[in-house]
Every structure is written in C-alpha cells, then in structure tokens.
Amino acid sequence: SADAMALARRDGDDILVTVYAQPRASRDEVTGPHGDALRIRIAAPPVDGEANKALCRYIAGLCGVPAGAVSIAACDTSRRKVVRVRRPARIPDVFGIPLQDMRSDRGDRT
C-alpha cells in the first residue's frame, strides 16, 4: 500500500507506533525499521517493567511530550509492542508520518 513505509499511524490526535524493542542495549537509540516495526534499543533491562518505562520515556523525548503521554497500547511483555503517543508535539522522521498529516484543518487553536 501507499503507506507501507509508515511505522506509525494516526489515531485521532494521537499516534500509534509499532516498536520492536531490544532491552539491555549499550544506550537508548532508534536503529531503524525491523519489518513493519521501528527497532529501538533500550539500555534498561526487561525486569519489573523497567524497559517498558524507559521505552516510553525515550519515545516521549523524541515526540516532545511528557513521559505520561506515552503508554504501551498492546503486547506489554513481548519485544514487539504498539506504543500510543498522546497529542505529539513533533513526529520524528523515522516514524514515517509526514507532519502535515497530523495537523487537522478544523482551525481549533489551543
């Protein structure tokens, strides 16, 4: 399909990002696509949810939102996850969504 390269998709004002997480990395970093997911290396170990928390904090930083605006929407325990970002301030290029696709033309200003 035309949006086959998009690793994230819109859901109203939010975005959903499919992530392939690799815990216990040397540092937090995006390494690029992994099939239809975005591979993100996270330094935290997969113990007591630490890697998930670190993943959410890292994605929050990429999107310019507080950590509380990012949550794991699906597959909490597997490496493959869907992450929800509420009302992102910016969309990293690696997500594959053009920024203009996130801006509605409703004209509402907050």
Please provide a written account of the structure:
With about 110 residues, the protein is mainly β. About 15% of the residues lie in helices and about 30% in strands. β1 (about 10) and β2 (about 15-20) form a beta hairpin.
Summarize the helices and strands and which ones pair or pack.
Layout: E1 8-11, E2 14-22, E3 29-34, E4 37-41, H1 50-63, E5 70-74, E6 80-85
Parallel strand pairs: 2-4
Antiparallel strand pairs: 1-2, 2-6, 3-4, 5-6
Describe what is shown at a glance:
With 110 residues, the chain is mainly beta. It contains one helix and six strands; from the N terminus they run ββββαββ.
Any descriptors?
110 residues; mainly beta; six-stranded mixed beta sheet; globular
Distance between the termini: 34 Å
Question: SS-based structural class?
Answer: mainly beta
Backbone shape: globular
Kindly provide the radius of gyration, computed on alpha-carbon positions and rounded to a whole number of angstroms: 14 Å
- What share of residues is helical? 10-25%
Order of helices and strands: EEEEHEE
Assembly state of the chains shown = single chain
Uncertain residue segments: 104-110
Fraction in beta strands = 25-35%
Number of strands: 6
Main sheet, how many strands, which sense, barrel? 6 strands, mixed
Q: Please, how many helices? A: 1
Mean pLDDT: 85
